[in-house]
Write a structure and sequence with these properties.
heterodimer, A: globular, B: 252 residues, alpha/beta, six-stranded mixed sheet
């Protein structure tokens, strides 16, 4: 099985690489890869070179006291060990698995019926997971703030041992959970053993921590000393040993202490692997449960729930509203009316409490700032995130293109619901922010300015939201190959580069399209400023939004031919 | 003619160059006629159907539905058309009833309630009206797609492998549905690998191979063709001989 497993892994890796390289023949992937590579280079490797060259600013900055550095270095393995113990406990409590038993469809189809032992399958999955673990370890080695290449390799090796042990241990938890459902008393006893052991370990460490912190620490150094006491003395030090052994290589000095630490860490890894391989009896049940969950995730990324009363759709009317109805139904089925009502009730209660407490600031300032942040999010970022428009409907293009609807009407229909929803959110949040203005973010503004700015914002919001949505939908229609379908999240340098280019392009187009409206709006504001004072921003905003609305309408008409021409073969395909 | 295809070609751009999926295809389908479109994998059947449905634009040639060109007058052409693809693409967040309602709105169906109720009954979807596509089997989803196609008064029906995923009762019902629609005057183009279905319901057959039409006629006409005399009257034998797979079949 070992050689067969290696064959599958190497062939898969080689073919994946080949597919990625072959894709680079297409300009969209090549350009994406170049931009993605440049981003990674300037984000990580250029920094490494700077660090190696010596950053004068860093050298000039005040260093931490030596005694504190020494205390941190001594206590660090213990602190990480404690964190690992806590994560181990959480692993039992939360419905979490390592993914090691998440066999692919092909693995289930070919390997399960093959004459391969359960242990062999586990080893196969363990070997298969190594590529991802090695990649994560390399990334950890690259990002660690160090000037030496050797120390990066050391950190990488330590991280690999740590991640491998974690992956295997969490698989052991999945297997033990499956065994806990057994009716066989002997199997049940074996299944409870690790849980009882862990509970005892937690109790011992918990008591030691409680004793060490019976009085509050006097400072950071004292805190480190007390953690050191817990991790290096008494029964707790024995209980924590495997966890600290895994953490120690990350902090050990080169060479003898590091090599010794790596040896002990590898011993813990091997012991964990042996435990899991010994406990493979519940393999089928655990693998079946996890495969079922993975399958559900794959086919049902978003879960929709039908409610008793659906949104009504009139039998006749403009097709744009039918599209809006479709998108609104989707949104309501994701969030649910009750959830929306509950959210609205919470927002209302918080707002009212904030208004009552407004004189003293406090909560009203917090709620006001929150409302302002929501408002900004709805207008600036949400049009990119909320994809219930053409970006999602590219998946259904085959159905859409058979409908007897004008292309421009399709585009307008796709914009309508997300635009209305985000505008409504922005307006509600703006009203809340306005109401709490006295204690909140607009506390220093005069009433006339507050009211004028609020009204201007309310007028500007739909213009900005619809303009962004139009640009995102235009990008989807003009460059369908660059837009991930539905809930797909393409990976790789080329996908990263494509995302960056799209983001930059959308913002550039938005700025350019806002210029005419901004100029005319500014002229109007200037013309009325002397007569109306702060209120002059309202006609300025009106003019800006009117210009944007005309631009959006023209854009939907101009995009019609693009929709007619769009070729399904050009739509982004999964790897 | 309800459906007219004139010198239709469709070319795809691939990484290794241009690939012609359909090359200079011409045929017509009359009202009340059921025409079978058959051919081996990669013959260009699905490309033809998807182009006729308005999903793909033809590279050259003309496609007309009731005289309306699909490129020059797409709205009028699409209003008269219903395409039932082999892979049921449904909106995962709309129920069966809502799919029908949306179709009725987009196609301006007046007697929606009556037609919808009759279709739900005819296609055995009763009790599934409030189900989401994710809660339905493959066969049921296929029936929903077909119901969406039949809920409006289309004069031209395009079926791509309509029996995929259906149980034996569903297959019989679907066969009856197709024949009934033809009797009502619809022009039907049906693509399928199930030659016995084509033989049973179609009045004429078009055989495609490597993007080109290699035979077109009734079973009697095809069987009478001099070059196909050796094949006999079985559609399977005619198909194998026309596509040049008869020797291969004989060897195996």
């Amino acid at each position: 099985m070992f050689s067969a497993s290696l064959y599958v892994i190497l062939c898969s890796a080689r073919n994946r690489l080949r597919v990625r390289l072959r894709r680079l023949r297409e300009p969209r992937y090549l350009i994406g890869a170049v931009v993605g590579a440049a981003y990674v280079y300037f984000s990580f490797f250029a920094r490494l070179r700077m660090a190696r060259g010596g950053n004068p600013r860093r050298r000039g900055s005040a260093a931490a006291p030596l005694y504190l550095v020494s205390a941190v270095r001594t206590a660090a393995p213990g602190v990480v060990g404690l964190a690992l113990l806590a994560m181990t406990a959480l692993g039992w409590l939360l419905p979490f698995d390592s993914g090691l038993l998440e066999f692919s469809d092909a693995e289930i189809q070919f390997l399960f019926p093959a004459p391969v032992s359960r242990r062999g399958l586990l080893i196969h999955r363990l070997l298969r997971s190594q590529l991802g673990l090695l990649f994560s370890s390399v990334i950890a080695g690259v990002v660690v703030p160090s000037a030496s290449g050797v120390s990066r390799v050391r950190v990488g090796v330590a991280m690999w041992l740590l991640l491998t042990t974690g992956k295997v241990y969490f698989t052991g938890i999945s297997l033990a959970r499956a065994r806990l459902a057994s009716r066989d008393a002997k199997v049940l006893r074996v299944a409870w053993l690790p849980l009882v052991t862990l509970t005892a370990a937690l109790a011992i460490v918990g008591v030691a921590i409680a004793r060490a912190f019976s009085t509050p620490p006097t400072g950071f150094q004292d805190l480190l000393i007390r953690v050191g006491t817990v991790t290096t003395s008494g029964l707790s030090s024995i209980v924590l040993w495997p966890f600290i052994a895994l953490a120690r290589p990350l902090f050990a000095e080169w060479a003898a202490p590091y090599l010794m630490a790596v040896g002990l860490s590898a011993l813990v890894t091997l012991a964990t692997v042996a435990w899991v391989l010994q406990s493979d009896a519940a393999f089928e049940d655990a693998a079946a449960t996890i495969a079922q969950r993975a399958q559900q995730r794959k086919h049902d990324t978003v879960r929709y729930r039908v409610r008793a009363s659906a949104l009504p759709l009139a039998a006749h009317g403009r097709p744009e509203f039918a599209f809006a109805w479709k998108a609104a139904t989707e949104t309501l089925r994701i969030f649910g009316r009750q959830a929306i009502i509950r959210l609205a009730a919470i927002v209302f209660a918080l707002t009212m409490t904030g208004v009552v407490m407004g004189q003293r600031g406090g909560l009203s300032a917090v709620v006001g700032s929150l409302a302002l942040a929501t408002c900004m999010f709805a207008v600036i970022l949400a049009p990119q995130a909320l994809r219930v428009d053409m970006r999602e409907d590219l998946r259904h293009l085959e159905a859409l293109k058979t409908w007897p609807v004008r292309a421009a009407a399709v585009v307008r229909g796709e914009l309508l619901w997300p635009g209305v929803l985000l505008t409504a959110i922005a307006w509600i949040a703006a009203v809340v922010a306005e109401l709490l203005a006295a204690g909140g973010p607009f506390g220093r503004m005069s009433l006339s300015w507050r009211v004028s700015a609020g009204a201007a914002f309310g007028i500007l919001a739909p213009g900005l939201v619809f303009a962004q949505l139009a640009i995102h939908n235009a990008a989807a229609l003009l460059f369908p190959a660059w837009v991930p379908l539905g809930h797909q999240r393409p990976r790789g340098l080329d996908a990263l580069g494509q995302r960056l280019i799209m983001l930059f392009g959308v913002w550039l187009v938005l700025i350019v399209s806002a210029v005419p409206g901004a100029i005319v709006g500014a002229i109007v504001w200037f013309a009325f400023w002397r007569a109306f004072g702060p209120a002059a921003v309202i006609p300025g905003a009106l003019v800006f939004t009117a210009v944007m609305a005309v631009e959006v309408l023209l854009a939907t008409e101009a995009l019609g031919p693009a929709y007619e021409r769009i070729d399904l073969t050009g739509v982004e395909r999964p790897e | 003619m309800a459906l007219t295809v004139e010198h239709f070609s469709r070319t795809y751009a691939t990484a290794s160059g241009a690939f012609t999926a359909v090359d200079d295809l011409s045929f017509t389908v009359d009202n009340g006629e059921i025409v079978g479109l058959i051919g081996p994998n990669g013959a260009g059947k699905t490309t033809t159907l998807r182009s006729l449905a308005g999903i793909l634009r033809p590279s050259s040639g003309r496609l007309r539905i009731d005289g309306h060109d699909l490129v020059d007058d797409p709205l009028e052409a699409k209003k008269r058309l219903a395409f039932m693809p082999d892979e049921p693409h449904l909106f995962e967040y709309l129920t069966v009833a809502e799919h029908l309602q949306l179709m009725a709105r987009l196609y301006a169906v007046d007697d929606f309630a009556r037609r919808s109720a009759a279709l739900v009954d005819e296609l055995e979807l009763t009790g599934k009206e409030q189900s989401l596509p994710g809660e339905l089997s493959r066969g049921m989803r296929q029936k929903v797609v077909i119901a969406c196609g039949l809920v409006r008064n289309a004069t031209t029906l395009l079926f791509d492998e309509p029996l995929t995923g259906l149980d034996p009762i569903g297959i019989r019902r679907m066969r009856n549905t197709i024949v009934a629609r033809a009797r009502e005057g619809a022009a039907i183009l049906l693509s399928s690998h199930l030659l016995h279905l084509v033989e049973e319901v179609c009045s004429r057959v078009i055989i495609m191979d490597r993007g080109r039409k290699v035979a077109d006629g009734t079973f009697v006409e095809l069987a009478a063709r001099a070059d196909l005399a050796a094949a006999g009257s079985s559609l399977e034998q005619i198909f194998l001989q026309v596509t040049g797979h008869d020797r291969e079949a004989a060897r195996s």
